[in-house]
Amino acid sequence: MKSLAELQAIRDKAKAAVNLRDNGEVNTRVMVGMATCGIAAGARPVLTAIVDEVAKRELGSVMVTQTGCIGICQYEPVVEVVDADGTKTTYVKMTAEKALRVVNDHLVNGNVVTEYTIGAYQK
Amino acid sequence: MRELSLNVMDIAQNSIRAEASLTTVRIDESIPAGTMSITITDNGCGMSEEQVKSVIDPFFTTRTTRKVGLGVPLFKMEAEMTGGSFTIDSTLGVGTTLTATFMTNHVDMIPLGEIGAVMHLLITCNPEIDFLYIREKVNAAGEEKVLTLDTREFRAQLGDIPFSEPDVSEWIKEYIAEMENELEF
Fold first, then answer.
1. Do A66 and B10 touch (CB under 8 A)?
2. A111 and chain B: CB distance < 8 Å anywhere?
3. Is the C-alpha dihedral spanning B88, B16, A78, A101 positive or negative?
4. In the prediction, which pLDDT does B129 show?
C-alpha cells in the first residue's frame, strides 16, 4: 500500500506551488449538481471530466464542488460557474465533452460558452 | 441507477447537506454468502423519528424546489429487489446510519460500479469534510480482508494543503486504485 509519508513530500511541493499563484486564493467556483436527478442524468462523468481537466491545467484558482438539486431537474446535468466578479453562468444538459469545452473556453479564457447555457436551451 | 456507487454518491450528498464533518462509507462483501451491504454513517444533524419514517416515502422531501425525494426510496427499492433489506436509523443532533443489504446472485442485482471514482470525487470535491472508506471482503476461499482509507490521516500529513490540489488528488486516486487491486484476491 501507499505510505502516508509520501503525502509529506507532496505537501512540501504543493506548498511552493500554492504560494506561487495568487497566494492560494480561489476566485472561480464551479458547482456540479449531484443530487438524485443530476446523478441519474449522468453528472458523475461530467464532474470527473471537470476535476481532471482543472487538475491537468493546474487551475489553482478554480474550486470545483458538488451541490444539491437546484430545482431544474429536467436540465440536469447542470453545471454552474461563478466568476470572480460574482457573475453566475448556468450550463445545462452537460456531458463530459461539453464540460471540457467549458473548462477550456470559460475557465481558462474567460469566454462563456453561450450555446450550452440555460438561456440558449430555453429558446 | 445503473450502478450502486451512484446511489452511494447520492446518499452521501444527504450527509453533506446535514453538515456532517465525518461520513463513513462501508462496503462488506461476502462471496460465500452471496451478500453485499453498503452502510453510510454520518455525524450530521440527524432526523426526528417522524422524519425517518417519511424519508422512505418518495413523496416526502424537506426541500421546496420540488415535491419528490427519490434518493433514499430508490436505494431501498434496489436492495429489496434482490431479496435484501434496508434499514435507516437517525438521532437528532447525533447523525444518521443507513444500511442496504443486497443478495448479489439475484438477477436484479445492480453492479457496484465505479465506487473508487465516486469516493475520489466525494473526497476531492468536499475538502471541508472527512471521509472514512472501509472495504471488507470475504473471498470464495473464505479468507477475509479489511482495507481502510481515512482522510483524517491524510489531513494530518497535509496540513492546510487541500485534497483538491492536483498532486494530492492524483495520490488519493492511486491510493483508492491500490485498495481495489488488493480486494481482488
1. no
2. no
3. negative
4. 92
List the domains of chain B with CATH numbers.
4-180 (3.30.565)
- Cell numbers at B137, concatenated: 471482503
A85 touches chain B (CB under 8 A): no
Distance from the A1 Cα atom to the nearest Cα atom in chain B, whole angstroms: 7
How many residues belong to chain A? 123
Q: Considering just the CA atoms, what is the radius of gyration of chain B in Å?
A: 17
pLDDT given for residue A21 in this prediction: 59
Which tens digits make up the pLDDT trace of A12-25?
888 777 666 555 56
Is the four-CA dihedral B99, B100, B104, B105 of positive or negative sign?
positive
What structural domains and CATH numbers belong to chain A?
25-122 (3.40.30.10)
pTM of the complete model beyond 0.80: yes
Question: What integer pLDDT is reported at residue A45 of this predicted model?
Answer: 93
The mean pLDDT value of chain B amounts to 92
